[in-house]
Specification:
The chain is α+β, with helices and mostly antiparallel strands and 292 residues long. 27% of the residues lie in helices and 12% in strands. The chain folds into two domains: 64 residues, no CATH class; 226 residues, no CATH class. The longest helix has 23 residues.
Length: 292
């Protein structure tokens, strides 16, 4: 088969794919029989490769037109960008863009979320997340910082925490009988900054967003130095909107809590946290998450 015949074959195959999908295999078989009866020429393997590629490309185009969601799903992510983001060096100016409307699964709990491209959290203690006492974190806090020690005693021993003694001000915890963590990955996005203070101390400021994947529960070292807490603040969504219980309480199946007056994008890191947002009133100051 000459070069001119081959080029004409490719053009006719693509042009006729939509109108006559049954003609291509018959024509291909006819040309294959003719090619076997003709002498081979240098470059024959390359042309066979082009023929197969052209045929598969036509099939792929037809498949994409008929089953777009299934074809996209074969290649992972369902169209969501999965490349990790570069480390955050300064506060972003805008919230992240909209993601494809993909439902998360137990194997891909961050599917359809901006957090899918965030870093895997380094450090969250899975035992503390499941409601146990944060002993390691307490051990590095300055034992002479009386206000912090009073808070810790009240927050971790009270059966009915108040907004001022809520353990969630510093520690993320879930009730094991109400929510179950999906996997061991916690996504994080943020930054740490440092500056020197008096007597050789270092002041560390952390501005970090944590994203924990959860699903309804099924029935149920040596310290070399310490640190003092200067301030703490939080913004909380999908973690409960009633009086403090000392745990995150995800509202599974509920879309909005009575009295929620405004909406909040939990992935918007373009605005600083309110320093007074740590201890909030028990009711009347809840927001609806615009996305999960």
């Amino acid at each position: 088969m000459s070069d001119e015949e081959w080029e004409r074959f490719l053009r006719e195959s693509v042009a006729g794919a939509a109108g006559a999908p049954g003609e291509l295999p018959a024509r291909a078989r006819s040309l294959e029989r003719r090619s076997r009866q003709s002498p081979r020429r240098p470059g024959g393997r390359r042309r066979v490769g082009w023929y197969v590629t052209g045929f598969l490309a036509v099939v792929a185009l037809l498949g994409a037109a008929l089953f777009p969601q299934r074809i996209v799903g074969w290649f992972g992510g369902g169209g969501q960008e999965t490349a990790p983001l570069a480390a955050e060096s300064e506060r972003p100016r805008t919230a992240p863009g909209a993601e494809p409307e993909l439902r998360p699964t137990l194997t891909e709990p961050f599917r359809g979320s901006p957090a899918a491209r965030w870093a895997d959290g380094a450090g969250p203690d899975s035992h503390v997340l499941r409601g146990e006492r944060p002993s390691k974190a307490i051990a590095v806090l300055n034992p002479r910082q009386r206000d912090a020690q009073r808070y810790l005693r009240a927050a971790l021993s009270a059966k009915a925490p108040t907004p001022e003694t809520d353990p969630l001000l510093l520690f993320s915890r879930f009730r094991p009988d109400q929510a179950r963590l999906v996997g061991d990955v916690v996504k994080t996005r943020g930054r740490l900054s440092y500056r020197e203070r008096r007597r050789g101390a270092v002041e560390v400021t952390a501005d970090v967003t944590f994203v924990y994947p959860v699903t309804p529960a099924e029935g149920g070292g040596e310290v070399l130095s310490t640190m003092s807490l200067l301030s703490y603040a939080r913004d909380l969504t999908n973690g409960g909107c009633s009086a403090p219980t000392g745990y995150f309480v995800p509202p599974f199946g509920n879309t909005q809590h009575p009295g929620q007056a405004h909406r909040l994008d939990p992935y918007d890191r373009s605005k600083p946290l309110d320093k007074n947002s740590g201890a909030r009133p028990a009711t009347g100051n809840c927001a609806t998450a615009t996305r999960s």
